């Protein structure tokens, strides 16, 4: 009968051993049939207890009562009643109308919080097994004949499912036991010893049945355990032979003696090893198909990988439109710049000759061999439910972008597809997941989650052979299964033995659902967990994480996405175990990221495990729940933890298992874990330390694991030791990998590509050429293999054999171009003979551009400058096609040597700079003629081609007409910033003084036109010969005349400090206006230009906004930042270069048009670069501590302890960013990369000069220099002394200090120096500074140091000089030093340690940046000379100063809170003292005491607004607001310690409302 049961496809081969156990035993006898009556099962009950995750519902009251009655019947001897109750329960008889959960298994309540083991059906089976012989006779009479008949029918039909039904329902009959034995033997035939062991154990656990089946059962079970790797369990089973009289068993048709002593562990182990050698784990290392994500039902990983060839065989777009592709690429690039590399959710599958891949809209089928599209779904016409529309038709850009990001990187249910070999299965109708503002007081912690597009979706089955013909759908308008209405499927189904298994949610309950693949009809379902916290609409983590089961050894393991995982014996449909774990606090995190300020950023959902699908390997279940933060390992049979959990930290995903090693993958590291113990075997990390990261899921080959990286490189490492085996750079985008038949599929965010495996291709080529030496495909492939081996000459010989009229020639032509380009790139002079052929062969625009680039480079290196200029002109202004569009884009990114990349336009500009520097006068004149000739061919000077020509060749006088025309166009269009940057670039590159003067005059006129008079006059003053300038344009001529007139007059528009009256008349305002802000002062790192001199830039966390403050204290309109980062943990810096401002914030770098800031604030943002999102690279740590000179400094580090972001000042038209070991030049007008270069240090500081960019590494004591025009590495030098540290950098000027070790007296010293990073030249070197010296760098320009003896020095970092030294009388030990710029002077404010009896201050603010402590002798110094401006220092008591107060007047305000006095009732009374100091002479102008102070919050920040027209200050501090009216006459002396009152009417009409003098902004009400 065993032979009759063998299906045709069942193999008798076991790896390493013949199937002995499967032929050991005969078939048992059949018994009589007794018909069993129906029984019913009803809803389970939910326990009201605190849950770690999902709740396992218990049997409801009626089921528990039936079990109780069965136990009582057994105890009372009423075995017939017990048999009926228990038998019907196991038979799962239906009773419609009682419960939709009838016939299902349920867990009993467990004392263990995490593990549930006992279920009602297993308990029913156990109770039957415990019946006495009389009870079993009754049971056999009732069910024996029925079981025998069903078994006979199932055997005759080769129906393993029917055999499993007999085993499940009638184990305690002879037929049930026979069915169970047959299932065990069948598992052995399939190479599943663990499944066989768990099946046979169902019989073995009952002593009666163990004795009945004797030694044969015991040996079969022990052998199964042993072959499954469980030696200890195998020995325990063999010990039970001690009571068995048999001393022989039949193995392979022969009698084999049993161990003489079954109690002797060593003897038993040797016997098992002799007769049952452990099986090699059965894994197909070269699968012909990959129909499931994860490779197989056990999800152990894709097999059969080998390094592919460099070029793709085919590549297809997986986005619906170019617009989608461009957005996704820009999003991905922004994340890369932030050091985050999200892994796409989608994974393709392969069925026969069809590749099935998800797209942004649905699924596409591609021919495996040719790459041609076969069909796609949906078709966006009258589809099955009429609801699917292309994403591009969503009118809201932000919503469309959010949905695309979700589908590509977040939505696991959307990204997966499965197949049973005939049909493909996928999910549709998956709406946007969009959390809203979190309500921290909401129940269950999820009340703040906004509803998604719906709590249901659609499961679709498509026929692969008939080009995606729709077979059935569940959900939507046409539902194939009425019982699954209102169902949300959490992933595509898992096909097992002709059925489909899918996890679904209905009415807040999660089920395992079994479907018929042909019709979609429901076969059965099993409840898994109850969701007490709401439906899937309320849980974005469960929604985007989904849940897909895994299957191995007869057990299906079901994740739930809700803090629980459940295992079922699929043959018996009973629970094996359920395991619960804690969910992370991800809902709160998401709500803070999404809704903190109304910002929706779905990228915050990326901070999780990439996939929660479990993996089953050799009796271990490994899983990384998306809703959890740990890796779990459980025993497949018991559900008990197999080893300690591993925290997620920076790990991304569990890749699979090979060679008993589980592969755990992070951003740039990989770890191998012993799958048995969880111990670390090895780490792979060293080769991925230069900013390279892992960007997709990898694939396995024999003894190796291959993974993709961000540098388009595939790396293969050994699974046994983690050592790198090989790597391969490729020319196609990399993402998730799938290996099939020696080919590699890679699906990235926007494309899917297929490449031939190198080994497979080589073997196929040799075979094909042997059969047909003229085989075109083999000829091309041979050439490609030779090309990859570096044999270019031989490769060209093979490729040139392909006829030009052959259909395959295009592939050969591309390879010919690649070979020739590579040869010219390596050695242009030696291979110049290839250039003519290459120019003829290159046809595609990108090929032509690369040929011209190589030609220009080679000619430039050879000294043929005019010919090189011709090639560069062809690149700069290429030909246009029939539509008038350039044949290639100068903004395209190109890869350069040394790990660099650049846009083509930036590269052209750099090469033209080389020409100008190297060519002689005669060559430059000839090039100027070439430019003039090209200019004549332009149809428009101001069009894109004209602007591009001027941008690249603006050095040459022939381009001057373009510059004038474009600048005038920009001015007329209101694009003042674009005109300014154009003119400033022309000034910098002008080769003669007359040209430079002309551009200076034009720029000065532009400034005058926007009323920036100070900048206009300063620019005009740089002109050498103003009277010789002639401008053709009437407008420009008028501006020039006005500039000459203004320059000849004495300026009167600016109000100087000297004009202000000397005395202050102070009055309180009874009904004060709100004039202050709770914003933080951003540090100005660069301030070039006069229009915004003395302005301040403020950022508010509470309003997520940016504001500018005038020198009069007026605040501009709030500019909403819409930041995705909640909190201010990160850099905050500002760079101002005339009309452009770069703002560096914790989440983004923003470009601001300052011309628009004064005219149209809504248009002031010109670009934004997000460098840090709510997920990747979000764990920035800010370390705030004083340096050796006492200045508080903030340093920001990422999870790898590397500086999070470094930025430089603006130089020319760009600034620099250093992040994740990548140096980037960013265009100030567009925010786009000009070039990028790899930097080999982790702690670099940036020093950017006009022509050289330096990266300074304190740890390695190196200065790495790069050419500013294109990032080309120049030289690396050592710098400084050991331990030298950076204090400040401005441009290329570096201020650093070295601490001298303490001497024998215990005192050390500081050495300070200023040097130029571009040249290494030392500009200033200090003598040894005394211990206790304090310092302050003001606006990143003036470095002030004060020694304990009073010696004070001021260095100007920009000018590179030391101002005149001064002294301040020492007032006590220095704590720190403050300094403020006040128009043309520098205020130095020490903070000394006061005697305890004088320390009566509480001068700190809740925000230290807004108010700082000062005490001791203060002095003002001239910024040009460094000389003191006061006759004597002003002695400051214990006060504080607000650095953000405006400097547009002569008064500086100090404030403090006095220690509280207690009234008679014991309540403390606080008060504030305010001082006004005249910065012109250091006088105390006024002191106000006894000002009212609140107890909480204890604020002392002073907010000031100035109205210079009325010589008036409005000062607000805490609840007080004072008017300071400056007059020439002194005020009457008030009573000591009192401020005269001035009560006003109730409407507050006496309150003075200051006016902002420029009229730009209105005062804040």
UniProtKB/TrEMBL annotation:
Top-level taxon of origin: Bacteria
Region feature Disordered, mapped onto this chain: 1525-1565
Gene3D superfamilies: Tetratricopeptide repeat domain (1.25.40.10), YVTN repeat-like/Quinoprotein amine dehydrogenase (2.130.10.10)
Domain Pyrrolo-quinoline quinone repeat residue range list: 458-588, 611-749
InterPro entries linked: PQQ_b-propeller_rpt, PQQ_rpt_dom, Quinoprotein_ADH-like_sf, TPR-like_helical_dom_sf, WD40/YVTN_repeat-like_dom_sf
Name listed for the protein in its UniProt record: Outer membrane biogenesis protein BamB
């Amino acid at each position: 009968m065993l032979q009759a049961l063998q299906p045709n496809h069942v193999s008798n081969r076991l790896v390493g051993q013949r199937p002995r156990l499967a032929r050991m035993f005969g078939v048992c006898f059949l018994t009589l049939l007794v018909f069993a009556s129906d029984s019913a099962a009803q809803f389970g009950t939910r326990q009201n207890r605190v849950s770690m995750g999902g709740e396992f519902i218990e049997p409801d009251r009626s089921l528990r009562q039936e079990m109780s009655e069965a136990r009582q019947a057994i105890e009372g001897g009423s075995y017939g009643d017990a048999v009926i109750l228990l038998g019907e329960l196991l038979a799962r008889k239906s009773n419609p109308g009682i419960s939709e959960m009838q016939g299902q298994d349920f867990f009993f309540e467990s004392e263990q919080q995490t593990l549930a083991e006992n279920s009602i059906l297993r308990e029913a089976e156990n109770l039957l097994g415990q019946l006495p012989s009389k009870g079993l006779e009754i049971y056999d009479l009732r069910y024996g004949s029925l079981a025998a008949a069903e078994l006979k029918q199932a055997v005759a039909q080769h129906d393993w499912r029917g055999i499993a039904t007999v085993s499940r329902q009638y184990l305690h009959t002879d037929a049930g036991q026979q069915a169970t034995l047959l299932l065990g033997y069948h598992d052995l035939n399939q190479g599943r010893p663990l499944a066989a062991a768990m099946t046979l154990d169902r019989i073995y656990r009952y002593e009666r049945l163990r004795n009945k089946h004797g030694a044969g059962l015991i040996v079969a079970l022990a052998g199964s355990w042993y072959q499954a790797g469980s030696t200890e369990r195998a020995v325990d089973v063999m010990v039970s032979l001690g009571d068995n009289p048999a001393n022989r068993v039949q193995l392979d048709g022969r009698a084999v003696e049993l161990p003489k002593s079954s109690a002797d562990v060593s003897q038993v182990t040797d016997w098992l090893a002799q007769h049952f050698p452990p099986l090699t784990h059965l894994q197909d290392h070269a699968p012909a198909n990959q129909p499931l994500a994860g490779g197989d039902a056990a999800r152990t990983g894709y097999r059969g990988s080998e390094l592919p060839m460099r070029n793709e065989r085919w590549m297809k777009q997986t986005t619906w439109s170019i617009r989608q592709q461009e957005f996704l690429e820009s999003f991905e690039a922004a994340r890369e710049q932030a050091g985050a590399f999200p892994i796409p959710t989608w994974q393709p599958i392969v069925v026969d000759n069809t590749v099935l891949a998800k797209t942004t809209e649905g699924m596409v089928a591609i021919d495996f061999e040719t790459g041609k599209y076969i069909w796609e779904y949906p078709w966006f016409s009258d589809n099955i439910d009429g609801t699917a529309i292309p994403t591009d038709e969503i009118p809201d850009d932000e919503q469309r972008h959010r949905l695309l990001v979700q589908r590509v990187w977040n939505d696991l249910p959307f990204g997966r597809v499965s197949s049973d070999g005939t049909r493909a299965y996928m999910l549709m109708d998956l709406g946007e997941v969009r959390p809203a503002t979190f309500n921290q007081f909401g129940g269950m912690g999820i009340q703040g989650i906004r509803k998604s597009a719906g709590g249901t979706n659609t499961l679709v089955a498509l026929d692969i052979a008939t080009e995606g013909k729709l077979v059935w759908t569940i959900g939507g308008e046409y539902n194939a299964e009425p019982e699954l209405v209102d169902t949300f499927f959490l992933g595509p189904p898992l096909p097992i033995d002709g059925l489909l298994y899918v996890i679904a949610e209905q009415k807040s309950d999660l089920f395992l659902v079994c479907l018929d693949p042909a019709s979609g009809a429901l076969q059965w379902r099993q409840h898994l967990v109850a969701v007490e916290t709401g439906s899937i609409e309320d849980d974005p983590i469960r929604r985007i994480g989904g849940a897909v089961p895994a299957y191995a050894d007869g057990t299906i393991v079901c994740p739930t996405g809700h803090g629980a995982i459940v295992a079922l014996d699929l043959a018996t449909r009973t629970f094996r175990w359920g395991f619960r774990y804690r969910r992370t606090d991800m809902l709160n995190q998401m709500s803070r990221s999404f809704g903190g300020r109304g910002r929706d950023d779905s990228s915050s959902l990326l901070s999780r495990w990439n996939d929660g699908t479990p993996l089953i390997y050799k009796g271990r279940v490994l899983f990384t729940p998306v809703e959890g933060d740990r890796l779990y390992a459980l025993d497949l049979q018991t559900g008990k933890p197999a080893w300690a959990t591993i925290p997620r930290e920076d790990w991304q995903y569990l890749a699979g298992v090979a060679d008993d090693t589980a592969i755990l993958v992070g951003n740039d590291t990989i770890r191998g874990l012993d799958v048995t113990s969880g111990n670390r075997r090895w780490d792979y990390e060293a080769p991925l330390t230069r900013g390279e990261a892992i960007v997709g899921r990898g694939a396995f080959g024999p003894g190796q694991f291959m993974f993709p990286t961000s540098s388009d490189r595939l790396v293969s490492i050994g699974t046994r030791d983690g050592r790198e085996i090989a790597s391969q750079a490729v020319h196609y985008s990399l993402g998730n990998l799938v290996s099939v038949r020696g080919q590699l599929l890679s699906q990235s965010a926007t494309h899917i590509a297929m490449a031939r495996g190198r080994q497979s291709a080589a073997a196929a080529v040799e075979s094909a050429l042997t059969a047909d030496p003229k085989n075109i495909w083999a000829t091309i492939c041979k050439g490609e293999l030779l090309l990859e081996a570096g044999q270019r000459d031989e490769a060209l010989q093979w490729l040139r054999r392909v006829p030009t009229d052959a259909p395959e020639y295009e592939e050969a032509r591309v390879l010919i171009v690649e070979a020739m380009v590579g040869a010219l790139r390596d050695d242009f002079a030696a291979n110049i003979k290839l250039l003519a052929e290459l120019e003829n062969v290159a046809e595609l625009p990108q090929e032509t551009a690369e040929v011209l680039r190589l030609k220009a480079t080679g000619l430039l290196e050879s000294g043929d400058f005019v010919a090189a200029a011709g090639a560069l002109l062809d690149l700069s202004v290429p030909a246009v096609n029939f539509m008038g569009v350039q044949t290639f884009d100068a903004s395209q990114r190109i890869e350069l040597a040394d790990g660099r990349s650049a846009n083509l336009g930036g590269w052209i500009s750099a090469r033209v700079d080389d020409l100008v520097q190297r060519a002689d006068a005669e060559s430059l004149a000839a090039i100027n003629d070439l430019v003039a000739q090209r200019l004549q061919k332009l149809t428009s000077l101001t069009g894109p081609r004209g602007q591009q020509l001027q941008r690249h060749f603006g050095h040459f006088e022939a381009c001057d007409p373009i510059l004038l025309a474009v600048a005038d166009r920009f001015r007329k269009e209101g694009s003042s910033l674009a005109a300014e940057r154009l003119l400033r670039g022309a000034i910098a590159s002008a080769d003669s003084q007359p040209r430079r003067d002309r551009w200076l005059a034009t720029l000065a006129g532009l400034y005058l036109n926007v009323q920036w008079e100070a900048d206009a006059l300063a620019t005009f003053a740089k002109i050498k010969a103003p009277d010789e300038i002639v401008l053709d344009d009437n407008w420009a001529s008028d501006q020039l005349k006005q500039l000459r007139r203004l320059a000849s007059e004495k300026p009167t528009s600016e109000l100087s400090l000297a004009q202000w009256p000397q005395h202050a008349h102070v009055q309180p305002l009874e009904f004060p206006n709100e004039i202050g802000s709770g914003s933080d002062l951003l540090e100005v790192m660069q301030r070039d230009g006069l229009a915004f001199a003395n302005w301040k830039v403020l950022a508010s966390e509470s309003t997520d906004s940016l504001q500018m403050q005038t020198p009069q204290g007026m605040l501009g309109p709030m500019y909403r930042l819409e930041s995705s980062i909640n909190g201010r943990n990160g850099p905050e810096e500002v760079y101002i270069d005339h009309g452009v401002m770069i703002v560096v914030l914790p989440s983004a770098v923003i470009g601001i048009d300052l011309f628009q800031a004064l005219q149209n604030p809504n248009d002031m943002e010109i670009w934004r670069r997000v460098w840090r999102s709510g997920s990747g690279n979000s764990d920035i740590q800010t370390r705030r501590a004083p340096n050796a000179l006492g200045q508080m400094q903030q340093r920001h580090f990422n999870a790898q302890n590397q500086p999070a972001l470094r930025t430089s000042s603006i130089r020319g038209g760009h600034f620099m960013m250093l992040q994740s070991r990548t140096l980037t030049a960013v265009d100030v007008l567009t925010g786009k990369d000009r070039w990028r270069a790899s930097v080999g240090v982790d702690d670099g500081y940036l020093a950017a000069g006009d022509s050289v960019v330096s990266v300074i590494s304190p740890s390695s004591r190196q200065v790495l220099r790069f050419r500013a025009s294109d990032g080309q590495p120049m030289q690396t030098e050592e710098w400084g002394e050991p331990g030298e540290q950076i204090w400040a950098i401005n441009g290329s000027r570096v201020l650093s200090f070295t601490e001298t070790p303490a001497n024998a007296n215990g005192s050390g010293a500081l050495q300070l120096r200023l040097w130029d990073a571009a040249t290494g030249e030392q500009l200033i070197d200090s003598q040894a500074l005394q211990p206790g010296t304090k310092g302050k760098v003001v606006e990143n320009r003036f470095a002030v140091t004060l020694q304990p003896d009073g010696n004070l020095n001021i260095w100007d970092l920009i000018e590179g000089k030391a101002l005149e030294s001064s002294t301040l009388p020492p007032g006590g030990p220095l704590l720190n030093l403050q300094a403020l710029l006040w128009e043309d002077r520098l205020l130095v404010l020490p903070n000394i340690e006061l005697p305890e009896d004088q320390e009566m201050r509480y001068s700190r603010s809740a925000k230290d940046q807004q108010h700082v402590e000062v005490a001791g002798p203060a002095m003002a110094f001239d910024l040009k000379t460094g000389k003191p401006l006061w006759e004597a220092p002003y002695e400051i008591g214990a006060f504080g100063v607000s650095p953000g107060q405006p400097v547009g007047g002569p008064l500086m305000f100090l404030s403090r809170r006095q220690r509280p006095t207690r009234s008679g009732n014991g309540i403390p009374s606080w008060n504030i003292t305010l001082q006004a100091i005249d910065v012109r002479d250091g006088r105390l102008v006024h002191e106000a005491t006894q000002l009212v102070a609140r107890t909480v919050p204890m604020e002392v920040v002073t907010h000031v607004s100035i109205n210079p027209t009325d010589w008036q200050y409005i000062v607000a501090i805490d609840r007080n607001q004072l008017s300071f009216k400056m007059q020439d006459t002194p005020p009457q002396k008030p009573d000591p310690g009192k401020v005269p009152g001035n009560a006003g009417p109730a409407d507050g009409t006496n309150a003075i409302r200051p006016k902002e003098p420029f009229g730009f902004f209105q005062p804040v009400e």
